[in-house]
Amino acid sequence: MSKILIVEDEVIIRTALRKLLERSKYQVNEATSVKEATSKYQLADYNLIISDLRLPGAPGTDLIKLSGDVPVLIMTSYASLRSAVDSMRMGAMDYIAKPFDHDEMVAAVKRIIGKANAAKIPQAAAGKRKTTGASIDGMIGTSAVMRELYNKLRKVAPTQATVLIHGETGTGKELAARAIHNLSPRADQPIISVNCAAIPETLIESELFGHEKGAFTGAANTREGLVAAADKGTLFLDEIGELPLEAQARLLRVIQEGEVRPIGAIESRKVDVRLVAATHRNLLTLSREGKFREDLYYRLNVLQLTLPPLRERGKDILAIAEALIEKFCVQMDVPIKVLSPEAIQAITTYNWPGNVRELENAMQRAVIFCDEGNEIPHDVLDIGMELVNTADIERSTSPYPTAAPAPSRPAVSKPSSDPAEDLSLEDYFQHFVLEHQESMSETELARKLGISRKCLWERRQKLGIERKKTLSSAK
Prior knowledge:
The protein is an alpha/beta fold. Helix content is 43%, strand content 12%.
């Protein structure tokens, strides 16, 4: 059971919050001030501290430094971006305004505790897995494409250059951006993450660059933008291809001149921001279509990283799946579960079009619906069982330039008994079929691979793997 400490001087709010969290199966203690919290309790014993911003004596933000690795959720009735930014800059995990919505509060608590637990899992799991020593904290995988990515991240991070991250949806672009920040000289400064597709077009300029009081209808107060909030730190703009043209012009000035001017302001303010942008779209194509400023594209495209899709990461898929299962078992307070051999076959032969995000959803479902025993059967994964040739689909739909498709392969020969460390899905399929087709029927092969017999036959035809004749048919 997760332990939560509430630091709130208003008895009505404190009592209501305690009852709400206890109904949600959390163990709760209370304090009325920072002094009482630190003298009465050991802060390191808690999974989360929820504190009011304004308290008798020291402010609630003092708990951020005193709590060590324990996450702090700040509450305040002074709901403004200014106080939110200040709290987040000091290290608060999140910010919620009073009076808070009960569902919103419970969701925030679950999210923060889950994220804190998840951050501990890769570190614990890393000691159990063989690694090359090249991995980066928070990132799982030892495949060749990931080792190459780690090397690039280490080279890129110490510089001040702008970075543009390409990758399909769900490949972990924000994770890569945070790795760049954490490996840079700005690691002790804030990283501000903004999803450009999630903010309405009418508000994006105000959110990013801020505004003066009275700059437009509804601007009742002066607001500092997120660009200024990232001063001395890193600004991560996800889905930058969705940024409106007007906001693109302002962002270009930030990059070129190192200054930002809020809407309605006369003077600009100097800012020192390291920009990391990400997109799954082809910005050069968008610029040629007039949907993205070409000058901004070339300003962004200083250092470019491309994240590999999950289907190209070989045995990393299984390592990530096991780490996710462990994470969700810890979150749900159930015994650690393992994947059955059939489930492993299904996971390693599926193409994962949704990448790590889809894998995460599948592992969460598996932990929830695995009722009996500690072994996860393949049927609870609820993933597509057809081995789609995703590589061909990507070549036809991906906005990124790709190499020409390889010529049709000649008749295959049986590979060595030990598969390579970083087999592609096609190589894995070929290896498994050639290795087992003499000892298994077509039905058994299809079941082990988690596909239909029809799909097995089609894949054989595509890869040029002839079906072995049985003794009865040979006669």
